[in-house]
Amino acid sequence: MPGTGDDLNNVLVSERELWLDGPPHALFNELRRGCPIHWTEGFEEFPEEEGFWSVTTAEDIHAVSRDWQTYSSGHGITAVGVFPVELTRAMFIGMDPPKHDRVKALFQAGFTPKRIAAHEDAIREIVIGVLNRFAPGDNCDLVADIAQPAVSRVIGSFMGIAPEDDEIWARLMNSTLGAADPDLNPDRFQGALEKDLPEIFERCRKLIAERRERPTEDLTSILVHAEVDGEKLEEHEIVMGFFLLMAAGNDSTKATYSSGMRALMEDHEQMHKLLNNPSLIPSAVEESLRMFPAFAHFRRTTTHDTELHGQKIKKGEKVVMWYVSSNRDETRYENPDHFDITRNPEHQAFGAGGRHYCLGTALARLELQILFQETLKRFPNIQINGKPTMVESLFLNQPKTLPVKLLT
Question: Whole-model pTM above 0.90?
């Protein structure tokens, strides 16, 4: 890890060793102060990948997010391109306006706060059902045994996935999004491309055929029967649209719930404050989102020569927005590395505004509130019971394992 006063220009933000235990927050602290727009030459593990600019402050990320004409999503959305560009472009997160706006609009009506609120009872029933599998005194892994089955069933119910297939889709999402971690995908990125992606397409083709023959009210059916500019979506666009919704629903809530619960278990003062005043749960959710954004970054590519924070950036260069940095920007937050459930902050966990602001914010917030409420109602003295581990990834920001003892 570089120390203050070292030459930050020579640091590789992509260096694997920096990410073995989660994001390198100390490095990002130094970059915000000393080199807020930072160039990383490349990737040790991916010599064919071009380097990238790191954007580390909340203000600069806000500027990039809102200027889609300069910073395009159509050339890749992560620092390392796991999928071929033609596949990322098939997801609305990998499109630029006007097509982005038209495809995203297909789903926006189903994700309004009012529509999501109508699902509260069903989501609570799912969470209670998962928690009821355990008795006081049981040991379990909060990630694998509680967070994963709960979020898988919630997004599965929206997509029209049969409950018995939840584990299959969770495995596929984890192994593709977490391809950098050898525990989640022993074959790493090659396995994601050569094994997992073909399986996703094969399984999706069956769902597509079923929805064409028997349309339903779920989001998969919306994808299958949608028209954009008078034309149906192509098969790869349907599959990648399905993948985007499943991936976001699988990872985002699981990540923030697990990280937030870990923070509470590690800070008895904050835990007692929340148990004594459960009305603080919405604020605790927002603080969890701020400190532990599920996705460490998203990326843009410049469409022309430009300048950001005094730094000249050439056309065609990657620009990576590090939310794990901007959400701890000391110019925005007092004592930003401290978990404070009374803070109720604004943050960039769902993006920083603009066209690509997260579609599922209302669903994520509702799920998180219910998960915190029901977990702490049943097991108010829950404790960490072993060593937590983090997913090894530049992209995913979440615990991989979180062993706990469930105590009342």
Answer: yes
